[in-house]
Every structure is written in structure tokens, then in C-alpha cells.
């Protein structure tokens, strides 16, 4: 049960859908549930008009003496000023001024800054007209400038990303990666035969051709790839030359639909062609794998690879078909390695729940000096 003595403001500059499966919006709903498990939550979300009304309620409550332990905000994948359906920045001061007001009222403010995708060349290939890209980048910079005076702690997917986010020396930066909400203990599959599973995208940031070639070269291993039908159809011609009969592609979405594939697999995969963007990205699927009790094979140099190597919850490999195939052959010959990795994942999974992330952010914001 949540504590009735704990109270926070949860600010999100768009509507929260707790049941969404859209990657960029899943986190907001998961964090809302975890915050509600922690204590009383006053939500400020929705359209600009809805947020303005909710902001007024919070301000009136604070003036009447209601205590809030902190305000936690989740940024959008879009600039804050462009989250309305028309994407026009008609309310440029609404959200930042509210966060600044809370700080002035001695409520510690933490904000999760989701992404710096817009700083990479791949953003320029997103299909938007050039003038829209320039407008969006201008407003992304406006957000970062505003955080200098409106935020106490900037939470990031990883501290690596902090090098690309300039919010001045006053704002503290902390890592707050995604989590999982899998409470049931997943069954332990047999460690042999070796059964691999990947769920997610297959676009330019998720190239797996070398991985598929490696699996094809080790027929004792099976691989199931779960991805969107449209994405697979657009890429099928590039993958089929390196895919043998031991690789299957399926299309499922949602926890219940994915459960049989997780149950059948004994190793999960995050082996992609290296990309600068992936150096600091903390994918949701990494923690879903941990929640499902799966040891993970990840690429050297990626944040996922760093976590897997640091916590010894799988294997870190270069994106090279010969090296990957060599590791797969070793695991086929020594299934006890898979069993041992599974046990380490199970020991670590409670550290990576959404509830654990909220406990972390609450502790961090409790240390903010309210006298500032």
C-alpha cells in the first residue's frame, strides 16, 4: 500500500496512457503506477489547457500549506512546447514556469530527459520537412536552456548521455534507466538446447545481419525474432540471405502474446551493429529481459553491453559473425554457463523494477537543499 504521508507532483506534457505499447510512451505510464505505489500523486498531464488547470490546483494547495515531497517530470520525445496535436509552440512558458514556481516554493524538482536523438544525423532522415526539423531543434534547445533554472536534478537514461546535455553546472545529473514490472517469478527453461529470443525493431538502429549469419552457422541453436510485420516486410530481402532454417520471425505484441516466446527461450539478445546513438541508449527491452529472467547477449561498447558485463548477467560480444558463432558453440557445449547466468539475472531482477526506480528518484530528490 502507498504511504499516505508521501505526496508528489507528477508532470508530463502530454496525455498518459497506462496501457500503451508505444515505446516512447510506455515509461510515463509505468512511472505513474510506480509513483502511486510509493504515495499520493497529483498528476499534471494532458493538453496544455488541462495542464494549466491542474497546475492551478497544485499552486492553490501549496499556498494552503499542502506539503509535496518532490515534483517529478517526464519529458516527451518531442520538445515540450510542441506536444499539442498541432505541434505549434503556442504555450512556450507554461511548463517551465510551473517547474520554476515549484522550485521557488521549495519543492525539489527532478526531470527525466528522455532522448538526444535530435542531435544525431539519423534525426535528419526522419521524413520531416527541413523547416520543421529546424523548428524542433530550436525548441529542444529552448527546453535545455529552461531546465537550468527550473530543475534541480536532471535524470537521464545513462550518465553517458549527460555529456551531450548542457544544463549548466547547477543542475545535478543522475542515471534513471527504465525498469520492469514483472512480479511473477518466470519459469526457468532448460539450458539446452540453446534457444535465443529477440523482440523489438529491426530498422537502422537495430541491424542484426551479423547475428543472423552467426546463428545460421550454428544449426544446434534456434533464434526467434519478434518484430512488427511492416518492418519485417520492408527488410526481409536484406535478411533472408543470412537466415537459415533455425531462425524464425514472428509478430506478437503485449505481455500475454509474448509470454510463450519468453518461456521457450533461455537467452535474450541485444546484438546490434555499433552506432554512436547506442553508446548511451538504455532500451526498455533490456530490463524486460531481466524481468523475465533471461540472461542477455549484448554488443561490446553499447550501454546494454556495459550493464550485462558489469552485472555478469550474460555475454558481451563484438558485432562479428565469427566471434558470435564461437560464443554460441561454447554455450551449446557448456549449458551450465546459461544456467549460472540465469541465476545471476534472477538475483538482480528486483533491483531493476519500476518501483525501485521511484525509490531511487525519491531518495535523490530528498537530498536536494530546500533552502536554495
The number of helical elements comes to 12
Compressed to H and E, one letter per element, the order equals: EHEHEHEHEEEHEHEHEHEHEHHH
Helix content: 40-55%
* Rg, alpha carbons: 22 Å
User: Based on DSSP secondary structure assignment, what is the total number of beta strands?
Assistant: 12
Distance between the termini: 33 Å
Main pleated-sheet profile: 6 strands, parallel
**Low-confidence runs (pLDDT<50, min 5 residues)?**
none
Percentage of residues in DSSP E strands: 5-15%
Mean pLDDT across residues? 92
Going by helix content, strand content and strand pairing, the class is: alpha/beta
Strands of the widest sheet, in order across it, are: 2-1-3-4-5-6
Shape: globular
Features:
six-stranded parallel β-sheet, 12 strands, 40% helix
Word description of this protein:
- By secondary structure, the chain is α/β, with parallel strands linked by helices.
- The chain has twelve helices and twelve strands.
- The model has no long low-confidence stretch (mean pLDDT 92).
Task: Describe this structure in a few short sentences.
This protein has twelve helices and twelve strands. It is of the alpha/beta class and 372 residues long.
Q: What is the element layout, followed by pairings?
A:
Layout: E1 7-11, H1 23-38, E2 40-44, H2 48-63, E3 70-74, H3 94-104, E4 109-112, H4 130-150, E5 153-156, E6 172-175, E7 195-199, H5 209-216, E8 222-226, H6 229-239, E9 247-250, H7 255-264, E10 267-270, H8 284-291, E11 296-299, H9 303-311, E12 314-317, H10 321-333, H11 336-348, H12 354-366
Parallel strand pairs: 1-2, 1-3, 3-4, 4-5, 5-6, 7-8, 7-10, 8-9, 10-11, 11-12
Helix pairs in contact: 1-12, 2-3, 3-4, 5-10
